[in-house]
Amino acid sequence: MKQGDGEHGQGVGQWVVAGLRAVPRTLRQDLLTGSEPVPRGAQQGWQAWRPAIVVPLLIGAVIAMVGGANEYAHHFGLGAAVGTALSAVQAGSLIAVLYRPLAAWWATTAVTLVAGLWGASRADVDALFPWSGVGIVLSALILFFVALTQRPRVAAETFAISYGAGLLCTAFHSREQNTTGLALVLFSIAVVVGAALRGRRVARTQLVEQEEITAEERARRTLLEERSRIARELHDVVAHHMSVISIQAQVAPHLVENPSEELKENLAGIRQNAVEALTELRRVLGVLRSEDPAEAPGAEVSGAAGAAARHAPQPSLERLDELVANVRGAGVSVSVDVVGRVRAHSPGVELSAFRIVQEALSNAMRHAPGAAVRVVVAHQRAELVVRVTNTAPDRPVAPSPGSGHGLLGMRERAAMLGGELVAGATAEGGYEVAAVLPVGVGGLVGSMGSGPSERPAVSPPPSDPSTLNPPPSNVNPPPSNRPQIKGSS
Questions:
Q1: Is the CB of residue 124 less than 8 Å from the CB of residue 110?
Q2: Measuring CA to CA, how many Å separate 383 from each of 256, 414, 419, 456?
Q3: How does pLDDT run across 105-119, given as a tens digit for each residue?
Q4: Does residue 450 surpass a pLDDT of 70?
Q5: Strand order from edge to edge, sheet including 420-425
Q6: pTM for this structure?
Q7: How far apart, in whole angstroms, are the C-alpha atoms of residue 304 and residue 286?
C-alpha cells in the first residue's frame, strides 16, 4: 500500500509540474499571438459599428487624458511630463481596444505598473492607489472589450494579471485609499458582462449558420426527392420502349424467309440485352419506390387500390381535358387554348407538359383564390410551349403551410428535356408559368452535352393565342429562346 501511495503521489507531482510548465506557453499563445486584428470581412455584431463608436470614445479619451495627467502629475507626484505621457498611453488604449484589444490591455497594465511602482513613495496620502480614478475606469472598460472579443479563458487571464499588477504595487506600500477592493468589483463586472455578451453573440452566429446549413440540406433533399419522383414516373415510359424492342427482336426472325444464323444471333442478343435492361430498370424502380412515403407501410393507399395507382399508365396531354374538368369542379374558372397542329410527342415530353400544367393549376388554386386561369398549349415546329396564367386573386391569400417545391419540380422536368421554364408575377398582379420543351431527339441530345443546346430558338406564344401560328420554315428564329413573362390580355 505504501508503495502504491508513493507512485500515486509521484504521478500527481509530475502532473502538477507539467501543468506549471505549460502555463507560460499558454499565456504566450493567448496574450501575445492572439492579439491579431480582426479581419475586415469577419466583422460581426458591434464590430461593424466601430467607426461610429470611435467618436464618443475619442471624446472620452480626451477627457480621460486631461484627468489622468492631473492625477499622475500631482497626486502621484510623477511630474507633468511623465503624467501626461502615461495618461496619453491610457487614453490611446481606449481607442486601440476597438481594433487590437490585447495590445490595448498590455498598454494599460504597463501604465498601472509604472505609475504604481514609481509613484508609491511619492503619492499623496489621500490619493487613490494603485489605480487612479481615471485609471480604474479605463482598465475596467478595456477588460470589458477584451472579454467581448476574446475567448473566456483569455478574459480570465487578463483579469487575473490586471488585478495581480495592482496587488504587486500595494505589496511594498500600504495606503488608506486602497482601490484594490473597488477594482475587484469593477473588473469582475466588466469581464462577466463582456463574456456574457460575447457568448450570446457567438450562439446567435452559430444558430444562423446552422439555419443556413439546414436550409441548404433541405433544398438538396427536396431536389433529390423531385428527381426521384420524376424518375419513377419516367420508368413506365422507358420500360414500354424496352419491352417493344424485346418483342420486335423476338418476332423479327419469323418475318424473314430463311434468316441467317448471324441474323438470329444478333436479334437474340438484342432481345437479351433489352430484357436485362428492363430487369435493371425494375430493380432501380424498386429502390426509388421503397423511399416513397406513399409506398411505405401504413400509407393510406394500400392493397389493390395502391397497386393500381402505382402501376397506372403515366398521364399525357390527352388527359388535359380531364385535368381541367377536375379543376373547374373545384370552382376555378379555367380556359384552355390549343394552338398549332396537334400531334403526338414523345411520352417524356407529354408527361412533363402534363405535370407542369397540373402543378401550375394547383399553385393557382392555392395562392390565387378566385382568380381566372388560362392555359395555352402551343405545338410549334421544334418545341412544345406551355403557358399557365392566372389573374390577381379577388381576396387575401391565406398563408400556405409548408415551404412548397412546385416550381422546383417544374424546372427539373423542363431541364431534364433540355428545355426552359420561367415563372413570375404579371403586370396585372397575377402570376404566369411558361415552359419551352424541345420535341424530338435533338432536344434530348442537346441537354446531355456539356454546352448549351444548338436547337433553333423559338419564343413562347404571346398572350393572344389567335396570333400564334407555327413559324414558316423560311423565317429566321428569334435571337433568344428564353420565355418572356407577359401579362394576359
A1: no
A2: 39, 12, 9, 9
A3: 999 999 989 888 887
A4: no
A5: 334-339, 373-379, 383-390, 431-438, 420-425
A6: 0.48
A7: 18
